[in-house]
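On clarity, I found the account of how folds are encoded harder to follow than it need be. Since the whole study asks how a given chain folds, the encoding of that fold should be made plain. For the editor and my fellow referees, an illustration may be useful. An entry of this sort, consisting of the sequence and the corresponding backbone structure tokens, reads as follows:

:::
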Amino acid sequence: MPGVLAQAHALSRIRLALAAARAAQGAWRGIDRDSLANSWAVALGPVVAAVAGAQLAAAQGTEPWLLRLLGRDPDQAESDRLDPLSLAGITGDGTPLVQALQVPMWTTLRLVGEGMPIVHAMARGQALLNLMVRTAVADAGRAADQVAMVARPAVTSYIRVVEAGACSRCIILAGREYGHSTGFLRHPRCHCGMEPVTDEHRPEAQDPQKVYDGMSDKQRRAAFGEAAAKAISEGADIGMVVNARRGMATAAAFGRTVQATTESTTKRGLAHKASRGRGPRLMPEEIFRQADNREHAVRLLRRYGYLF
């Protein structure tokens, strides 16, 4: 099972994501239905600030967590510390929040234009907003964890930590071990996390079947569906029943071919100082994909402002 610190770390991220989602939904419910686009344009600034603040808080929790969990890494350069600001204000694929969070309104307007009642269209838009906000906060936290792990030479890999209420696809990936720079498989609104592995710290991996056995009948039906839950309970191999990769991808795979963002390269971008205005900035997962080795990855993380 993941350690107490890893579980507490994951829970704090979930709370931050839920708080940001509540703030966004409160703003959405205050929209003037007679002026949808203009009303959301006014509300968008505070919403972006709330989500970026949650992302920043999620990223700021990484270094203290790793320090408590692993102690100091004598081989890590003092300059190679995570810059939490570098991961706030953008989505996991590098899209600025101010741009991404307009999508729920565009979706609502399109549905209204197609004849859907405004109440139903706004409900659809709110559901999309909730999904996007929670995913953005979770992605920022996971990216922070992985950047900081890559910067620690002692970390050789990570083990997937499944959060309470996880879906079937996440449950069967519980406890799997991946290389320190391997992209994290997730789906929208996924809140699973990772725990680092070193020579001195090897957490006990979760077992998917044991996770399933510890669930109530109601939880099993919610996660797997009634037919699949019945099959697993009657002895079917959980790994054969569920297709783990259906709907799963890394944060980078959800976006462009080469993941980059210009958000932090503007004077108002949160990480402008770190990136020094060098043009489009590669996202961490794209850096890990392109890097030849850990040293190369660390150099790129420094170059693009994720470490300082």
User: Anything to note?
Assistant: The longest helix spans residues 118-150. Confidence is low (pLDDT under 50) at residues 253-257, 264-278. The radius of gyration is 20 Å.
